[in-house]
Amino acid sequence: MALIPSQVLRVAILLSYFSILCHYKALDMPAHQTYGGSWKFLTFIDLVIQAVFFGVCVLIDVSSLLTKGGASREQERQLRKLIGLRDWMMAVLAFPVGAFVVFTFWTLYLYDRELIYPRLLDNFIPQWLNHGMHTTVLPFIIIEMRTTHHRYPSRSWGLAAVCCFGIGYILWTCWVHQVTGVWVYPVLEHIAPLARVVFFSVMTVVICVFYVLGEILNSYIWDQPHTESLSCSGQEDTEILFQQRKRWIRRQQSCQAV
């Protein structure tokens, strides 16, 4: 049996994201008062993505619990839609964007923190909140991938969706600069226009690489022989529980017919 049920872990992670978002929004930072507010930062967008994703996961857990053993066809259909949304969000947004934020932030931070997170921000953001935004995101999403099987879309469609997100954020960043005359991240102030094009192109490739890595990691975890033992230890995928309920309902209907 698992030490901590996956459902409890998801609730705990969701509550932690709510706490991080509330503390972050409560910060009295000048950047929050300018055009775009918090939404011009990829870190904040990622926090919202993670909170919504784990919110969907918890909603599926609650729905599965409430309908266990007696789900109607309409309830089954709605549950399937939620599971499909959860899997799509994991593949296209939660894992690639979360991994991208952690990787790029700490890479630039270790190279020269002034390019991404100036020391001035230490006066506004405590260290625990910084790690909540830029560190724990990756282990949280890996825990979710480890405890629940997620169905990835075809690679071409998945990469297309990730590219659309990346390009959309780049265009949003350029628009904020057009309006305010200031780049969202200091690193963009220190490079020439052509170098920015190269930088944006490389970042788009990197987030696509993280999509592929997430797909490979998901397949590695769930295509191994130990997958069955994981399910038996109380870490079942909601889809497996869903199929078990359907078989139970069919047996009940057969007994009633007899």
From TrEMBL:
Catalyses which reaction(s): 9-(9Z-octadecenoyloxy)-octadecanoate + H2O = 9-hydroxy-octadecanoate + (9Z)-octadecenoate + H(+); 12-octadecanoyloxy-octadecanoate + H2O = 12-hydroxyoctadecanoate + octadecanoate + H(+); 12-(9Z-hexadecenoyloxy)-octadecanoate + H2O = 12-hydroxyoctadecanoate + (9Z)-hexadecenoate + H(+); 9-(9Z-hexadecenoyloxy)-octadecanoate + H2O = (9Z)-hexadecenoate + 9-hydroxy-octadecanoate + H(+)
Subcellular location: Endomembrane system
Ranges that cross the membrane: 7-27, 47-67, 88-108, 128-145, 157-178, 190-213
Keyword Transmembrane attached: yes
Bilayer disposition of the protein: Multi-pass membrane protein
Cellular component GO terms held in the UniProt record: endomembrane system; membrane
Keyword annotations of the record: Membrane, Transmembrane, Transmembrane helix
Classification via Pfam families: Far-17a_AIG1 (PF04750)
Family: Belongs to the AIG1 family.
Name under which the protein is recorded: Androgen-induced gene 1 protein
Species of the source: Channa argus
